[in-house]
Design brief:
With 394 residues, the chain is mainly β. It is 11% helix and 49% strand.
Length: 394
């Protein structure tokens, strides 16, 4: 044990005990060992929106809307604290993702004990475990992101800044247990059980708890990855998943169709490498099928088909495009059935600063046959958004 001169001087006049100092240092060792494998990361996400035209029309994708129209915005600050799983047979760790800012309210994870929104939310908070079964069976226990979708909840991980309609009506977060197993480099699967489809932490299947003990949400997914022997297709992925359970009065933007009921969300998506260097293509199909509490009466459905293209032009410059058609067959959301919306999004990203994502985006949404997009002067069939987005990752 090495002691500095100040400590030795205090010990000489009897103000401290060398034995006490030694015991204190020994007690600190386990704490420092535990913290040495802990990582702290996150990002700050800001934007500027200009909705073209008089009256400021806006569309209904998640984390957008009137509150961000025609102005500068702090979107969200994420703080992540984690201890990843190591290579041990019985490995254990955890992850906590905390959100601060306006988007935290839209996330909708505030627990059943919360009295309302407050620009703070827990995005994820789970214990990670591994059991030595075959190649290793991994578990998440707590609150975790949904297993469905082409796009991530983290905007910076997506090819485009604004979210798609498919992302908008997918499940977002679950409270439960998720098990993942990788059979080989090319094939993995996940299965899980949660309280509900909805994002609210600790939510139960029914408000009065009449079926909470037996009515749960079940989910499963598979992922296929092309091996290196497939040439230019190497690394391409095909993904499919399903989530079925109860949603307690969620709106479309919360993954439901404005009411209590049973729902099933289906997803199929693929990302494909191409012979053109830097070019990747993607496609996704999402379906939300919503039923009454009894499970017999259909209350409507919503589905979306999306295509993506990304091109890495230079080390810093990348170009991204998304085309989407969404159809909502439920009057519970827009007041009429058979709504069809077309959307085109183009994004230019140039990473000028280290650790910073900087991008400009133009988005056009068109409502077929009717006027769906709100504005100060009524409703519109077309809306155009120009947006700038800056994200610093730390």
């Amino acid at each position: 044990m090495k002691l500095n001169q100040w400590t030795l001087g205090l010990a000489a006049v009897g103000m401290v005990s060398l034995g006490g100092v030694a015991r204190a240092e020994e007690a600190a060792v386990p704490l420092m060992t535990a913290l040495s494998s802990t990582t702290i990361s996150g990002y700050v996400d800001a934007s500027a929106h200009w909705n073209l035209g008089t009256g400021t029309g806006y569309n209904y994708y998640k984390f957008g809307g009137s509150s961000k129209a025609d102005g500068f915005n702090l979107n969200v600050v994420q703080l992540s604290i984690a201890k990843p799983l190591d290579e041990a047979d019985w490995a254990a760790g955890y992850k906590v993702d905390l959100w601060f800012g306006p988007d935290a309210n839209s996330l909708g994870t505030q627990s059943t004990l919360s009295t309302g929104s407050g620009d703070f939310a827990i995005r994820q908070a789970y214990v990670a475990l591994r059991a030595p079964v075959g190649n290793g069976l991994d578990f998440k226990v707590g609150v975790f992101d949904t297993i469905l979708g082409y796009e991530s909840i983290e905007s910076g991980n997506n090819p485009n800044y604004t979210r798609s309609y498919a992302f908008t009506f997918q499940p977002q977060t679950h409270t439960g247990v998720l098990a993942t197993y990788r059979f080989c480099e090319c094939f993995s699967a996940a299965v899980g059980v949660a309280n509900t489809v909805g994002a609210q932490i600790n939510e139960r299947a029914f408000v009065d708890g009449t079926k909470a003990e037996s009515y749960k949400t079940y989910m499963g997914s598979i992922a296929l990855t092309a091996p290196e022997s497939w040439g230019f297709l190497s690394g391409s992925t095909l993904y499919a998943g399903v989530v079925n359970g109860f949603n307690d009065g969620a709106t479309l933007a919360q993954g439901g169709l404005n009411g209590d009921g049973n729902q099933t969300s289906w997803y199929v998506g693929a990302t494909m490498a191409t012979p053109v260097t830097g070019l990747k293509l993607g496609a996704a199909w999402d379906l939300l099928d919503f039923h009454s509490d009894s499970g017999n009466q259909s209350l409507g459905d919503a589905w979306a088909a999306s295509v993506y293209a990304s091109f890495q032009a230079t080390e810093k410059l990348s170009l991204h495009a998304r085309g989407e058609m969404a159809q909502i067959n439920s009057g519970r959301y827009f007041g009429t059935d058979n709504i069809q919306i077309w959307s085109l999004t183009g994004t230019v990203q140039y990473d000028l600063w280290k650790n910073v994502i900087s991008r400009a985006e133009v988005r056009w949404d068109h409502g077929d046959e009717n006027q769906y997009f709100s504005s100060a002067n009524g409703s519109l069939k077309n809306v155009v958004l120009l947006a700038a987005n800056i994200i610093y990752k730390f």
